[in-house]
Design goal:
The chain is 1% helix and 44% strand. The chain is an all-beta fold.
Length: 366
């Protein structure tokens, strides 16, 4: 893929007595070049002198080409080395030699073939329930172009959640936080230089560890009698279970001083529990939480449920127990109700009945 051209100026000058004497060659410096992999590269060697011949050597000190120009006037000559599509084998130092019968000269330059870096070597991550720590080997090929940044990639299996976290070029380790407990992730790392991104490193698909549930289950609570409430719930969803749920705890009470706790083993998707021996027509605060092998999790939102009402108990009438206390007015009778209580339900109304002399059935009078 290499070829050479040697060109000279055509406006030669001669003296009256013949050609001028040979001049020692001089050669100009050649600036180094950076060439992306696969592109064409050109190195140009410019020299002054007479009867010059050129040849080049490559990165392995191999001879690439030779050439001569027999014109003797002091002129400027140019030799061009072309590589059609550079590879990493073309990377290195090149030397241009110029000589004639009087002397010789040379100059060197570097051809730097640049490309995206190769993939870093990722070591196996260390995972907890929500964090993952990574370390990768920095001894990889940078593509002859300085690394600008690393990227640490995580993909949560079964979802479309993917994160690419930039990491400073000077670092070869990083920790990812806020992962989902008890979930499978695929991790890999890439490097970036001025030519682009590397391919992906070796990837690791690993599960995060279990944690405690960060939410309780959704549940319903219905009063079925004046002393009982039925509770039912389904499993905590996977997003919040953070592991394998082993059991549940139901907590209920009318206030913080009379709280009752009942544990229920995990038996399937549906769970039921009856709260019994409760107070009549009383409000109960109810909440549930789950347990994994790590411990108890967060309680669900409190639900307040009231037990049902019952028939009110028998009431007593004040001022009527002793006839001597009855008023003398034939049309007015005043009395007080006591013993009425809302412990059995809300009192909607009172009805007063009387049994008149000569009657056996009571008659509603109020």
């Amino acid at each position: 893929g290499r070829k050479r051209e040697t060109v000279g100026q055509a406006n030669a000058s001669w003296s009256e007595t013949g050609p001028v004497c040979l001049r020692e060659p001089t050669v100009e410096n050649i600036s180094p070049i950076k060439i992306p992999l696969g592109e064409a590269a050109t190195l140009t060697c410019v020299a002054k002198g007479s009867s010059l011949s050129f040849f080049w050597t490559g990165p392995k000190n191999e001879s690439l080409l030779t050439g001569t120009d027999e014109r003797t006037p002091p002129e400027m000559f140019t030799s061009i080395l072309t590589v059609a599509a550079v590879t990493q084998d073309d990377n290195g130092t090149y030397r241009c030699f110029v000589k004639n019968k009087a002397s010789n000269a040379s100059t060197t330059t570097d051809m730097i073939v640049v490309e995206p870096p190769t993939a870093p070597m990722l070591e196996q991550p260390i995972l907890s329930s929500r964090n993952a720590s990574f370390h990768w080997n920095s001894s990889f090929f940078d593509g002859n172009d300085p690394i600008r940044k690393f990227f640490l990639h995580s993909v949560q299996q079964g979802t479309k959640v993917k994160h690419s976290i930039p990491v400073d070029k000077t670092s070869n380790h990083h920790t990812i936080s806020n992962l989902q407990p008890f979930s499978n992730y695929t991790f890999y790392v890439t490097a970036m230089n001025g030519q682009g991104n590397s391919s992906a490193s070796r990837n690791f698909t690993l599960p995060t560890l279990q944690d405690t549930p960060d939410a309780g289950p959704n549940f319903t609570a219905v009063a079925v009698s004046s002393t009982a409430i039925n509770i039912s719930w389904v499993e905590i969803d996977r997003e919040h279970a953070n592991g394998i749920v082993l059991g549940y705890e139901v907590i209920y009470g009318m206030n913080n001083d009379d709280t009752v706790r009942e544990e229920v083993n995990h038996t399937g998707e549906q769970h039921n529990l009856q709260m019994s021996s409760l107070s009549i027509f009383a409000e109960y605060n109810i909440s549930i939480r789950g347990r994994t092998s790590i411990g108890w999790g967060t309680f669900s939102k409190i639900m307040t449920v009231r037990t049902l009402a019952t028939e009110p108990p028998k009431f007593n009438l004040s001022s009527l127990e002793n006839p001597d206390t009855w008023p003398k007015s034939p049309t007015t009778l005043t009395f007080h109700v006591y013993g009425a209580s809302r412990r059995h339900g809300r009192i909607k109304k009172y009805e007063v009945y009387a049994i008149y002399h000569g009657q056996t059935a009571p008659t509603a009078i109020v």
